Amino acid sequence: MKTIYEKGSGGVEQLRGNDEISVIQKEAMYQQIVEYSFETTVIHSRHKVLYINQSGADFLRAPKESIIGANILDLFMNDYKDIIVERIRRNEEENIVGQLIETKVYRMDGTLVEVELYCHPVYFGETKAIQSIVRDITPRKEAQRKLRQVIDEVSIPLVPVLDGIAVLPLVGMMDQYRSEQVLDSLPKKVQGRHLTHLIIDVSGIYNFDEVVAQFLYRINAIMRLLGITLIYTGFRPELAQKAVQAGIEISSVKTMTNVKMALRMLME
Questions:
Q1: Which residues form the PAC domain (predicted)?
Q2: What angle do CA 121, 122, 128 make, to 5 degrees?
Q3: Which of 96-134 are b and which e, b meaning 16 or more Cβ less than 10 Å from the residue's Cβ?
């Protein structure tokens, strides 16, 4: 079919009447759009790469010729391959669009990068295939890790008050994540400070549950192994009740009413 164009009102060429763009023209236009996209775009079928745009080749650090024909699964870590295989199967057999996921892929030079992956079924010519969009999120993830590191430092403020004595005030919600965070960070923070006593003030903790009771018991055991005597202040009755309900023995934990009383006792 011959395609005829005419000038539109804005001087732009438009299709006249019922003339349609041929399948070949559509594919050529689509490929041109994708080729100049900044997004890494890969089209694959039965695990074999059929097409990759220039951004994708740049991202994978290899010429297109060495990527086309390769096995798409070779990009993924062994731990992720089963998940990716099932995802591809559902795309191909059940025509299900794959949801956006975060994973890691290998570039052709062996470097590992964190990515977002989105895929959906397409036709590449006459071949039923999958188009995958890959976004490099390594810089974003690194920024998030650095931010979390800063937050962790701020949320575990170890305050030296006298020779061999420091205070750690805990404020806010103590959930499983934060408990593990303190358990991991605190031994590193006290290292090299020559502490003999550590006062942990729990009066600012919002929640008192089994997680908190377990945390207090574990951190006491860790500090004892490090040769540091732990004193809890601001210990409210409801925490003791929760500990008993959880079957946690906290009779060995040393407590004082507040930080001032703990310091006075240590100075005397």
A1: 99-149
A2: 95
A3: eebeeeebbbeebeeeebbbebebebeebeeeebbbbbb
Strand partners, 103: 115
Quickly count: other Cβ atoms within 10 Å of residue 87's Cβ.
20
**Interval 165-211: pLDDT, tens:** 999 998 888 888 888 888 888 888 888 889 999 999 988 887 777 78
Q: Are strands 229-233 and 254-256 parallel, antiparallel or unpaired?
A: parallel
What amino acid occupies position 216?
L
Q: For the segment 202-255, what is each residue's pLDDT rounded down to a tens digit?
A: 888 877 777 887 888 888 889 999 999 999 998 777 776 766 776 666 666 788
Rounded Cα distance, 75 and 108, in Å: 8
Both tokens of 75, joined, read: 């990009």
Q: Where are the beta strands (DSSP E) in the chain?
A: 5-7, 13-15, 40-45, 48-52, 98-106, 112-124, 127-136, 159-162, 165-172, 197-205, 229-233, 254-256
Give the model confidence (pLDDT) of 118-128 as tens digits: 999 988 888 89
